[in-house]
Structure formats: C-alpha cells, structure tokens
Amino acid sequence: MNRKPSSRPRRARSDRATASLPEVVRDELSLLRRVQQAIARSRGVIPYFDYEGDMVALRDTLAEERLPEDQASIVEQMDRTAALAATRARRAPERVDARNPYFGHLVIRTDDGRTRELLVGPRPFLAAGVRIVDWRDAPVARIFYRYREGDEFVEEIADREWCGEVMVRRLLTIVDGKLMRVQTTGGTWVRDNGGFTQVSAEAVLGGGAGSALRPQNVQPHLGTGSGAWLRADVPFQQIAGMLDPRQYELITSPDTGMVLVRGGAGSGKTTVLLHRLAFLAGRDPKRFRARRMLVVVFNRALAAFVARMLSELGMSSVPVVTMARLARTLVQRHFPRLTPYRAETPPAPVLRFKTHALLLPALEEASRAAPRADPAGLFDELFSDRGWLRASAERHAPGCFSDSDLAQIHRWCSDQHFRRCEGRIGDEEDPDRPEYDEADEVILLRLHQLLRGPLLHSPGHKLAYDHLAVDEAEDLGPLDLSVLLPLAREGSVTLAGDSAQRLGPGDFSSWEEILPRLALPTVEVSPLQVSYRCTRPILEFARGLLGEFAPPEVPRAVREGAPVEILRAGSRGAAMTFLADALADLSRREARASVAVLARDAAHAREAYQALAAADLAGLRLALQQDFAFEPAIEVSEISQSKGLEFDYVILLNPSLLNLPPTRMARQLWHVGATRAIHQLWVLCWDPPSPVLPALPIRLVG
What CATH number did the domain enclosing 459 receive? Predict the structure, then answer.
C-alpha cells in the first residue's frame, strides 16, 4: 500500500535552513508571514471593483449612442461611477496587496518609554497587531525618511511633539509575496538559490584612486558578476522606501506653486517627480485627479518609460505626452484651418532662433503692438520681416546671431511663408508641400495665448490640469515652458532637469537664468547631489567629459565599481569582432543583463548593428525609433534617443575628434551616453580617441 510521504523531514530541513540565516533575515521572514496571515484573516478588506474599467466601457458606449436621452442617461451613470470610485478611495484605506504589503520596517522608542513598531508601504493596514502606514500621507512616515537607525528624532505629529530614538530601520524588497532583499545599517542580504547572501561590501563606496584598476595584461572583461542582485527586479512602487531625506522633502513639498528638482544623471529626478504625483493624488484625490494631471517629456522613449513607472505606482490614468505631440494636438484644436503638413527640419540657425529665449519678450512686444491681430497672420508677418528678425536679435540676444545667420533665417522663413500662401490660393493641395515645423507650432500657441487668451480644452472651457510635471525640462525651450506653465491650476508644477544634459537646440543654460525670463519667482532648491545609478568611476569619467562646462556641484556616488576602460582596435571590423565576442560571453554569464551600444548618430548605430548582427547575438535589437525594449536585451541606438533611460552595461562607440569635438553640445551628448550605465562603461574606438576624453590608459584590443 502506497503511503503519502511525511512532510516532517522537509519541514525539518526548512527549519534548519532558516536557523542558519542571519538573525535580521529570520526576523523579517517571520514578520512577513505574520503580516500576510493578518491580511488573509482580515474581514475588513472591501472587495475590489474595477471602476476605471467601468468608466472606459461607459465612455465607449457613449461614443456609439445617438439618442440624446440615452446619452444623458449614460453621462449620469458615468457621474455616479466616478462618485463611487472617489468614495471608495476615501473609505477603503485598508485594502493592501499581500504580495507587496510594505517596504519599510521601523521601530522607535519615544521618551515616554514606549516602543512602537510600524511598517511603511503603499497602502495603510491595521489588524491583528499589524500596522502599515501609507508613505504618502502618514505623519509618522517622516521619521522613516528623515532619520537613520540610531538617530534621535524630534517631530510634530498630530499636534504633539514626538521625541525619541530610531531603534530599527530596515529597507525591504518583497516581490510576489517573497522576501528578496533586506537592507540595514549593518549590511544588505539578498535572496539567491541557496538562501540569502550578504552583499554589503559591494554597495558601499570604498577604496581610493586606482584601487580598482585591472592589470594591463588582463583581457578586458565585460560584466561585474554582481549585476544579478543589483538587478533584483524591484517593483518601482517599492522604490518609495529607498528615497533619501532630500528626495522625500521634495516629494512632500507644498502642493501649490512650482517645485524644481535639480540634479545630475542618476540622482533620482524622475523618481522624485513621479512619486510626487503619487503623493499629491494620494493625499488629496479630489483635488489632484490622476486623469487631470499631465506629464510632459521630450521624446517617445522616455514617455513609454514614464508610463510604465506610473502604472507600477497605480497611476496609469495619468496622461504622458511628448511636447511635440501636445503642441501638434493643440495647434489642430486652435488653428483648425491650418493644414497638418509639417516642414522638413529647418537649418540650425533657424531652429536656434525659433527656440531661443529672445522670442519671449519679442512676441510679447509684437502682440502689444497689434492686439487685434490674427495669431497665424501675425506669425507670418513677423517671421518674414527682416527688420523685425534683426531688431529682436539685437535687442534681446546681442551677439548670438551673425549677419549670415539672420540672412539664412529670413530666407528660410520667407520661403516657407510664400509656399504656404501659394498653397492656400491654389485649387489643389500638394501633400508634399512644407507647412509649419515643430518649433512653429509652439510659437503659434504662444501667440494665441498673448492675443486670444488661455488655451482651451473645448469651446468656452479653459484647458487646465490639476498638476503639471515636466521631466528632462532642460530639453524644452523657454517658449515651450511659457506655453505649458499656464495650464497648471494654482501654478501646481513640478519641473525636473539637469542643464548639463541638455541636447535640444535652445539656449537653456541654467534655471537661475531661465526662471526670471518666464516671469516666475526664482525657486531656491539645492540640487540632488547623490548619484544612485552610476558607480564612482562612471560618474568621474562622465564629469570629466563635460570639462569646463561641468556644473559647480560635484555629485557623490554611493557605489564603487569596475573602472571605465578606453579600448582601441585597429579597425572598425576588429572592434566589432571584439565587441561581439564580449557580448556573447556576457549573455552566457548574465542572461538578464540590459546592454546599450550607443553611437553618435543613427547612421553609425545602423552600421554597428549590421556588424554585430553577423555574430547572431541573442537579444540584439536596433532601437532607432525610440522603441527600446525595457527588458534584457542588447540594444544598439544613437546616444540622444537613450536619454532618460538606463542600462546595466553601456558601450560608447568611436568618440574620435570628429565625433567628439570640444564643443559644449558634443561634450553634453557623450556625457548623457556615459551616464546611462549602471554597472560598467566601455569606450570602444577604432579611430584615434578624441582629446576631450578624460585621461585614462588606452588598451589595445582586437
């Protein structure tokens, strides 16, 4: 007779394995089980209702319905559903996800002798002796973010002063109900196949100059071997537990007025910006409605990335748009008679003039001189007027545009103007006829604001958002910001940017210079000075690339890492063969690594992809349409398209003097490329390396 095997031996083995773990890990495993049991037993959890899905279905039904009385009924039902959703948001704080219930563990002892244990997470919960507080609006959460283990604290909570000491402060990563990572003051433990491994030494900045150098006779090695635990697939919503005090202070800033988030690459600007949206919506969902917030970015790749992160924060209904798409939509709404054809990219002096801050006062002056003018008509009149172009440049940007620049600007704008006029008069439209370029659309919108008033959502209704957030704002020109900022109710705006990473054609130099031009008060905000993405060697190399254009604030890295290596091959073919071998080896050792191979422009990226494709590398992709995978892959692209993203490993291709001249824009472009790397950076050349590169030993390969 077959008998079911006893589970006692297996349980005994499990108990022995648990007993061998560090005490801090055992404590957290036990706590997680207790919390999950409390959640399972809790009778107060309200069933989940998909109100957002109901609203989408009702909206689709409304679009199909033709009878007015039925339309009115559907609208009334939509209002009721929205009201129910708002009520639930206010009255159901106890709903919590057992797969990811919390990310912070805090024990405090107050001066009255009482000890309190609190957990910090995305949703509040209170049952069976378990208390989870919401990181966004629980006053006691301030202690978790502002203090460290062993610190004494003083905070005013519920109109009472709390004084005491932080006894325990732990940062936890819980994925699909399993404890994956425990971080304490004394070290970090990460789950692996055999249990938990301590990795604290890697995470601490240490050593000194040259301490991590590899011998010259050792073959260059791509891969750190520690990427697996650093890439532990941490849900973005758990990053809330990793916020440092300065980031938390910015996130919880007053909800009116503008918050400016400054900082270098990898300092957490985007993290702060997105968590600020979640904080505002969580604290006051009636005032800050997710669907009436807006995030504006400069390209589609960053828009896709931001949308994914918002979804993980439970904010998927927040619209994310590029400035170009928003401007096109608004122009079509406010200038319906203009044809949608877009002109080819204008010459560099034309684009620089049309995005220059000089247009802020110049357009205001022209609008005051002709207050009844039609915005589109005034646009044509101004930009085909050689005298106005010259006077505006001399008055508001002396020395910025040469005589030949102004002649080229006038010739281009006049040609475009007359071609538009000919097209309007002709009987047939030429589908290839140039119309307005991307910069023109923003100018038209600004003229509409100056001559006609606020931009509209629909006839008679002003376009307004509960909160406006702009990421990588340095790549939006002053004119872009002058169009965007009035769209925010009560001026509730968050701007995030770094002037050292500007790639756009405008004249953005510093926030201190731009904000007064926008008639905004100067916001005194100390920059985020800690880089959490890049290792110390990568950060120092990237700063060296900026040279004289580096900002005065020196960022600080929290991790040591492999040295940046400049590698020189005898030819492009030899370089690509060496790189293909290195990438194939990396793929075998770290199958989940994300790798970016970045070139100066699309043509060079396409050449590199074709060479690497011959090696049949697994996961190789060409990403030239801002279509990054956001998953383990080897992606070949141009540097500018990767801005705002990050990869485990980055290889910069052939920064020769031709590709990296000593200009500000070139330095900033390659600085952006270098700071995409999390763990390791290679610089691979087959032409003589540019003297702009920081002075590092050059190793021959291939």
Answer: 3.40.50.300
